[in-house]
What we know:
2 copies of one chain form a homodimer.
Chain A: H1 4-17, H2 30-37, H3 41-53, E1 57-60, E2 64-67, E3 74-76, H4 79-88, H5 92-97, H6 100-105, E4 112-113, E5 116-122, H7 125-131, E6 138-148, E7 154-163, H8 164-167, H9 184-190, E8 196-206, H10 212-215, E9 224-233, E10 238-247, E11 251-258
Parallel strand pairs in A: 3-11
Antiparallel strand pairs in A: 1-2, 4-6, 5-6, 6-7, 7-10, 8-9, 9-10
Helix pairs in contact in A: 1-3, 2-3, 4-9
Chain A binds a DNA duplex (19 and 19 nucleotides) through residues 3-5, 29-31, 39-43, 45-46, 59-65.
Amino acid sequence: MAAKYGRIADDMRRKIETGTFVAGEKLPAETELTALYRVSLNTLRRAMDLLEAEGRLERRQGIGNFVRAPRPPIRRSPDRYQWEKDRVLQPEAERMKTGATEYDTGLTIDALEFPAVYDTIEAPPDLADVFGVDAGSRLLRRTYRTRMRGADSPLQLIRSYLVYDVVAENPALVDSSREPWPGGTQHQLYTIGIELDRIVDHITARPPQGDEAEDLRMLPGVALIVIRKVSYDTTDRVVELSDVLMPGDRTELEYTTKLRRWPA
Amino acid sequence: MAAKYGRIADDMRRKIETGTFVAGEKLPAETELTALYRVSLNTLRRAMDLLEAEGRLERRQGIGNFVRAPRPPIRRSPDRYQWEKDRVLQPEAERMKTGATEYDTGLTIDALEFPAVYDTIEAPPDLADVFGVDAGSRLLRRTYRTRMRGADSPLQLIRSYLVYDVVAENPALVDSSREPWPGGTQHQLYTIGIELDRIVDHITARPPQGDEAEDLRMLPGVALIVIRKVSYDTTDRVVELSDVLMPGDRTELEYTTKLRRWPA
DNA sequence: GAGTGGTCTAGACCACTGT
DNA sequence: CAGTGGTCTAGACCACTCC
Lengths: 264, 264
């Protein structure tokens, strides 16, 4: 890395690691740093771009640049899917107690907001293909932003899709005022006679688009982890599809594969 | 996005999608584009930074900027783990036939290179913790770069760690000239009496560091998907840990969770 | 050598925040 | 208002590729 901005980033990275710049503290102003490193503002800011993308730096316009305290990652594992399914058959009082996000975070239901937005869209080709319906068919789209109440660290943005004509059989399912629904999506499907057989997670990573960075309060340059979660019922039909978006620097997914024993 | 560079990126994105700029083709030179958009070079290049991070643009110094043809993602699923385990007990002739990378790609063994590098390191705290050994203990580190021969599209960079004193029981296991080993790591462990019970994948996304972007021929700004794969043997001991690094814009991971049926 | 992208500078002005 | 980060410009020079 012969470029100046790379060397400055290396130096600042070292200063953060050795404690010269303390986590949570404000860095010297950019004009001071240009004097320290004897570079132009432009070059200095390119160095900060790198640190920001690495999640080590947080920039706040009008205030200053801050060393970012490492945040413990939110863990997510597919164990939740079985847990959600088991919960469906429990009495409502039990189902009320906790939602799936608490399962990840250990937080209680009171600590979370669930601002759910329902609307309908015409199925774009990729979704129509997965659901096995014609492109343009009506889909119910539900958008959830789940975050810790009070904290400024949102967890995830979820876009859930259902085939409208299938779920409208129970009018309560297309009514967003019924959120949060005790027992979640699997219980909602249960009310129209659907039992899930398996869930397939397709995981990719990409830069945030449009408002996503804003919605998730992500720093620019941080990657988004996207889980496209496809739920199949016991007749092998795709009944729900969710895109779960999470900031890559605060999320760890965990999947366990149990292996069969060799014959003795 | 009131900023000029954002509007320019929007415009160029549209031109790529509508075919004004054709995939694989060279864009007008940057100096021409500055004239077209009436902005400074600096601003234009910030717009191109965005497109590059989105994987839509490829920059080649001294040649030009190119619209990047979308590449089909490489799929990876944990089905391979059971497949690898089943293969261990097969005769060598059978094990020779294919490796795990072909399992992902459908390519034959002839189409792949496996330049393996072996060395030993002192266990850093995080690895020592996972293996349950003292920090500073000797680990065997094996580095693999697997890529399609001839093509310039590498697939993944793998760093595999084993406890040196455990695997040195079979001297062949610490000798890189024995690569590629028919039957892979699970067969290597089999030679010292180890059978795997389960494998846990920890998935995160982060920007590439150091030489990683270069090694994987990644465009700057593209996120790296990292799988930390931890293998447990039948006595619940961690016997191997691999970090598998893949370019986020060319990789899709797939995990299926089978759910138990409700009682009838 | 001509043409391309990569880096860097000095200076200007704007937008946001807190006093 | 002063201080901070965010954007933009015009111009210079360097590094790489191809002829």
